[in-house]
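Worked example 2:
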Amino acid sequence: MGQRESKGRRSGSHAAQRCAGSRRRGRGTFASTPAQKRSAANTIETELEPNTKKATEHADESTSTAVKGFDGWDAALGLKKVADTWDRQVKVLIGRLGSEKGSLRGASGLFVRNDLGTGDGFRPLGTQSKLNGL
């Protein structure tokens, strides 16, 4: 595909495009703000999890209908096996999304606790300084 063709195409999410763009310019960052972490966790909760469940229910309904339509045929057994595999994979995906959501929400608090702990570690040094009282 030439440059002209690729310019009009969109690929991936907006966030993925931003990250890719940052890497190309050599300014990629690993950090995100607590607000960005909350936003990502909320997106998982309000968009990704429910939409994944809806898509799964739709696929399950369609597959069940197809299995009934092929009753008595080997195709029905194959579809059933595929549906079972699909269901297991969706459960893993939903679990992973929940885990990522929890990690995003927990990371913000972890960093704050680390910062407070580091600050608490330096406070005794401030009280012992020979510069105190000058």
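Confidence is low (pLDDT under 50) at residues 1-12, 14-23. The helical segments are 3-7, 14-25, 34-69, 74-127.
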